[in-house]
Design a protein that fits this description.
With 426 residues, the chain is α+β, with helices and mostly antiparallel strands. It contains 13 helices and ten strands. 42% of the residues are buried.
């Protein structure tokens, strides 16, 4: 797989010929991102400065925005090709932001469902890293697994625009975002399956405010936001009124798979740390690597990694082929979340007290693994959804589902036709 950002000339070209993109991304994250993680975790001006330096280095290395559309300034990698890099990139939570791939889901969504004015105003700036976005779906007191109870309302104004009122929480990166995609009810009553829409809200609008930060197991980055009668231009509606669940379904399918890939990268990092510790440390009883219980931790962690990776790759392949991947994504999401928590736990155990302190990334990796079992739908949601889908194929008179059935919600394309007649049904 060739690096789409390298012309083959000079030192960069010779390096690209010798080392593949996945290796180059992995080395960039290890050598450039890992050493700056403590600063990036701390937030504030120092973190912003460190991120700006990393982004400049990524551009210079020809690694900027590799999965984003080439015509918008990205690298133009397909989803399948980017999946080969995402694991290495995701070994650090800051990897996607440093390498410019963090807005992938928003770029895909705006490119597919945004109106011409919105695409022209925001897409190139998103790819360039000039704008930041976030996504607001869940609400206080409303289970994220039950979007039909969304209480945020968007009222149509005489000029065709919208007035949005409501509150959202656990919105990642909201404090630094320039745009937030908000799910709101534009028609119908609480609990109706129809009438939910997505609107793109500039965070500088009057009535938008960050209510508070919501640390997750002590880690910053999540926020509660309020929209107090925020006016949104008519062309900032994404898709058509009532299409929110279709658009969100597409976004979640790809987003969950990307998370799985990144969790694999973080689990591999924890595994490597564990093995290095076992091989280089010991005590009066000899090297840790010679202890059978340590060997059991290594085996269990390796088994978890090796059995999870094929599930994630299968989901990637189906999504890339435009096929129905809901079952495979559900399996991969639960497996990857459990796997990251397990591998990080094994690594902490082998490190002992050192694994609990600030000198290794293991506490952060463990926290990510635990939170992963709730992010993008809790384990229970995916378990029941997958089981029901499978069991429907065994009911009386049921016919096996044809292999390779295409599913529009699984399509991964940057430039579908923008027409009112386009079929976007799940």
């Amino acid at each position: 797989m060739e690096d789409p950002r390298t012309d083959g000339g000079g030192a960069a070209g010779r390096e690209a010929e010798a080392v593949g993109p996945a290796q180059r991304v992995g080395r960039f994250v290890r050598d450039r991102v890992f050493p700056r993680e403590s600063v990036l975790d701390g937030g504030g001006p120092a973190a912003a400065e460190a991120l700006a330096v990393l982004r400049a280095e990524a551009r210079a290395a020809g690694l900027w925005a590799l999965p984003l559309p080439a015509e918008l300034g990205g690298g133009g990698l397909s989803f399948a090709a980017y999946a080969e890099l995402a694991e290495a990139e995701g070994a650090s939570d800051h990897g996607p932001a440093a390498l410019g791939s963090a807005p992938l889901l928003d770029v895909r969504m705006l490119d597919r469902y945004g109106r011409p004015g919105v695409r022209d105003a925001y897409l190139e700036r998103l790819v360039a890293g000039e704008l930041r976005t976030c996504y607001a779906m869940t609400e206080p007191g409303v289970p994220g697994t039950d979007p039909f109870r969304t209480a945020t309302r968007a009222e149509r104004l005489p000029d065709g625009g919208w007035r949005v009122t409501g509150r959202k929480w656990f919105t990642s990166g909201a404090a630094a975002a320039d745009l937030v995609t908000v799910m709101a009810r534009t028609s119908g009553a609480d609990g109706d399956r129809e009438g939910l829409s997505l609107l793109l809200v500039p965070t500088g609008s009057a009535g938008f405010r960050v209510v508070r930060e919501l640390p997750v197991l002590g880690v910053a980055g999540q926020y509660e936001i309020a929209l107090d009668g925020v006016r949104v231009p008519a062309d900032h509606l994404l898709g058509e009124p009532g299409e929110a669940l279709t658009i969100a379904g597409e976004r979640l399918l790809v987003g969950r798979t990307l998370r799985c890939l990144r969790w694999l990268g973080q689990a591999q990092r924890a595994f490597d740390l564990m093995c290095e510790r076992a091989a280089t440390h010991g005590g009066s009883r000899g090297p840790l690597a010679d202890q059978q219980l340590v060997q059991a931790h290594v085996f269990d962690a390796l088994l978890a990694l090796r059995t999870t990776r094929p599930l994630v790759r299968e989901a990637v392949a189906l999504i890339a082929a435009g096929q129905d991947a809901r079952t495979e994504v559900g399996l991969a999401k639960v497996a990857a979340a459990r796997m990251l928590q397990q591998v990080a736990d094994c690594a902490i155990q082998v490190h002992g007290a050192a694994g609990l302190g600030p000198d290794t990334p293991l506490p952060g990796l463990f926290r990510t693994g635990r939170a992963a079992r709730i992010l993008d739908g809790p384990d229970e949601l995916h378990i029941t959804a997958v089981a029901r889908r499978v069991l429907r194929g065994y009911g009386r008179g049921a016919q096996p589902r044809p292999a390779g059935r295409r599913c529009q919600s699984a399509e991964v394309s940057f430039r579908p036709p923008h027409t009112d007649s386009e079929d976007r049904e799940n």
